[in-house]
Amino acid sequence: MFFVGLAVAVALTLFVVWLIRQQLAIKWYEWIIGFLAVASLFATVQHYFSSLEENEPTSAWMGALIFGIIFLILAALDWQLIIRHKKVA
Amino acid sequence: MKEFHSTLSRRDFMKSLGVVGAGLGTMSAAAPVFHDLDEVTSSTLGINKNPWWVKERDFKNPTVPIDWSKVTRQSGVFQGLPRPTVADFTKAGVVGGTSTDLETPEMALTLYDAMAKEFPGWTPGYAGMGDTRTTALCNASKFMMFGAWPGNMEMGGKRVNVIGAIMAAGGSPTFTPWLGPQLDTTTRPQDFGAPVWQGTPEENLKTCRSAFRFFGGSDVGAIEIDDDVLKFIHSQIGGKAVVVEDVEEAYETATKMVIPRKCKWILMWSARQSLEATRRQAGITESHAVWYSYSRFPKVGAQFQEFIRGLGYQALNPGMMGFLANPLAALAGMGEHGRMSSPTITPKYGTTNRAMWALITDLPLLPTPPIDFGAYKFCKTCGICADSCPFNLIQKGDPTWENPASAKSGIQQGTFEGWRTNTADCPHCPTCQGTCPFNSKPDSFLHAVVKGTVANTPLLNSFFTNMEKAMDYGRKDPEEWWDMDDFTYGIDTSY
């Protein structure tokens, strides 16, 4: 999990730097949706690997599917919201 | 040089703080409240390092309602089915006659069918326990089960009947006597003019926990004995009366076992059974995970009695048939009463403790209060264990004050509002123990979320039960166990 955390932290940092360089005004609810998307990604990865550790393969893929879909929906939603700002700007 | 500006306004920042604050507020409302650090370390939660969602209740007020006026002391008798003979099994055309089983031949057939349906390809083997290597593991695990001396065994090229020799010398069939082994190598400080160990009740309970964990046990709890609590120590053990007397030292005669009035504490201790082996057991009458626990834990208890003696105190062992484990465990905060009835559901290990045993001692101990982590309420809507029972012996529906179906087992009626399994007809097959949702390991964050929610509200219990089934938790194919890289003794001690 250490390396997963490290990878996510690096990705997040690069993302925030990119946001700042783009000079995008992120709305408060976009931050929340983004946070929930990242949390869902964490949940997907953490639950999948730890369930395999628990010898629970069905739970691993079912959980990954549920949290993964939530992540994809939230990430796509947030991306679209932010992209539309840019177009408007 | 570029100027950097925050894209987050002060107003937005305060909104975010509000969300975080609300989350923290909810967590703190649900978490146990302590007034200082001493309280943390001296509580049950501190002693046993229970998860944060476990809450303490008032003394003598466990989650299962008890009508103390109806409870009376019972005799320590194990009600079970008559043990069939090899001839009984052969006559009925059932393999498995070599096992120490409790099933009737008809029950064995029912169980074999259930196992074969649950695990396609499973066969009872030549002894009813599964394939040859599983049978070998089961039989090897039985060595000195329940603290019993072996029968015929190899010694220096001769077959010696050990238990026969010990009985002939006036000994008892087990090494787990009421007064403890009291070996010559166990010295007592007072016999050498040295003071006995002096510790506060808190220190003593922690001392017991540390010693138990060293010997192979897990958690501890303590209850101060009063007239109510004494009702759960049986009035007779092995045909001998169990009485309280104003004496300094406990003793045992041919007719009675004596508790000195100064022995005012019951020390409950638990020890875990291999989780992965437990949920991969199949075949008649329990299996290797159970049998190896019964082989190992009596020694843990006997060595702990010697430890207490070495401190200068007394520890009396009522034995497995000398007390009611479930109510004492609930009163000591070791866990909660649940649908399976006799196993106590514990917050960390579910029903995978094999030892939930009691010792009576004069070592002053900090009493530990009952706990609540939502198990009793969860059992009301779950029922996975009852559905799994091939013999339909686990009580279904809501908890009740009586269950006529269990009457022949000797479980008292009208004394508590809970569930009573018909243990007299129960053949002790290995099915239900591996099905409890509380057995889950803590690796995935999801278990903490679910258990934390269950401890605080029963609203989602039904949903969680359905998810438990959908995600296929619980029992697993026995064949997988041989390919697993399991822990020593099958115990993951990281939690």
Automatic annotation (TrEMBL), chain A:
Source superkingdom: Bacteria
Protein name listed in UniProt: Reductive dehalogenase anchoring protein
The species this protein was found in: Dehalococcoides mccartyi
Gene giving rise to this polypeptide: rdhB
